[in-house]
Amino acid sequence: MSKLLLVAFSASEAPLGVGFAKALGFPFDILCFGEAPSADLGAELIKVVAITELPPADAIARIIAGQANGYTTLASASSMHAKDAMARVAGVLDAAMVTDVVEVVSPTEFKRPIVAGSVLATVEVLASPLVATFRPSAFRSTNRSGNSPVETLTVDLTSKVERISHSKRGGARPDLSQARVVVSGGRPLKDASTFETIIGGLADALGGAAGATRAAVDSGIAANELQVGQTGKIVAPNLYIAAGISGSTQHMAGIKDSKIIVAINKDADAPIFEFADYGIVADLFDAVPELTRLVKS
Ligand SMILES: Cc1cc2nc3c(=O)[nH]c(=O)nc-3n(C[C@H](O)[C@H](O)[C@H](O)COP(=O)(O)OP(=O)(O)OC[C@H]3O[C@@H](n4cnc5c(N)ncnc54)[C@H](O)[C@@H]3O)c2cc1C
Q1: CATH number of the 4-152 domain
Q2: Which of 44, 149, 207, 284 is the most buried (most CB within 10 A)?
Q3: Distance CA 232, CA 253 (A)
């Protein structure tokens, strides 16, 4: 019988998979790292790995692969943790993998974006088990009923990886992939402290997340985990504000599901204005602090 194991790397991620599970049409269990999620998600069983901090990806993959027996599909929302761990799970299980699913055509056929999101490919996977990641923004979360039993797993957390340091900037801001508002900055932000003041300031005033282009990340202006785009995070907020961002294909691939895009650029011919719903031709060092002031007032 076909069955899905939904993997959630935190309790807040668990509900994101319910729409995917419904589209797939299989009964499902949830394997959740961290705290137990709501028991009302429609899963037959919720397995919890009760930890306060995720171990390195080799340990996570081993734990997930160790739970694979009896499942025809193992899936998680596309995220940095998923990129790190789910490919390893497929490796450990010698399983087929399909990433970034945006539509389930049938239990063996999936649509996924390729060529920086400009083409949708339909892929057929006949192998079992299948390891998949899906874009949560493409699957509506639906209300489910039921009260799933919760089982706490005892697992081996040892890893061959030694974590030398761990840094996270952005404090208490919402997770980029799930934020309703994202304020992003590009190369002109100069340095990390200017980025934090200008971009972080507006993000905080709006209760949103801060994001960045790869150029900003590569220049040390913004932390790696803030990169939005083809090789960064895919976002789908209600409001995306792009300040000092040219609008490269690779950046736009990560933001095209945003409901409203506002671009602030001093060059009226910048490509981003072709995609933006609203455009402000201005110096971001004037416009963004002014917006922050207006939001706060
Ligand atoms: C394989 C590959 C993958 C990539 N993946 C990604 C990805 O995931 N995400 C990503 O973002 N990029 C990615 N890139 C890089 C991408 O091609 C661009 O180089 C990058 O997005 C440009 O970043 P930017 O817009 O910050 O910089 P720029 O292209 O330098 O643009 C800066 C913009 O700021 C404007 N500006 C300058 N000063 C001001 C000011 N004071 N006020 C207002 N506007 C101002 C300029 O007019 C310009 O439009 C990838 C590239 C490759 C080859």
Answers
A1: 3.40.50.620
A2: 284
A3: 10
Contact predicate 198/243, CB 8 Å: yes
Residue ranges covered by each domain of the chain: 4-152, 176-296
Superfamily of domain 176-296 in CATH is TPP-binding domain (3.40.50.1220)
Ligand 1 cavity residues, CB under 6 Å: 186-188, 213-216, 227-232, 244-246, 248, 250-251, 254, 264-267, 270, 283-285
4-152 shares its CATH topology with 176-296: yes
Q: What are the pLDDT digits (tens) for 63-104? A: 999 999 999 999 999 988 898 999 999 999 999 999 999 999
Confidence check: pLDDT of 161 > 80: yes
Q: Return the sign of the alpha-carbon dihedral for residues 108, 40, 87, 208.
A: positive
Q: What is the pLDDT of residues 40-69, one digit of tens each?
A: 899 999 999 999 999 999 999 999 999 999
For ligand 1, atom 15, name the residue with the nearest CA: 214
Please list, in sequence order, all residues whose beta carbon lies within 8 angstroms of the beta carbon of residue 177, skipping any fewer than 6 positions away.
Answer: 77, 78, 79, 136, 233, 234, 235
- How many angstroms separate the CA atoms of 48 and 112, rounded? 29
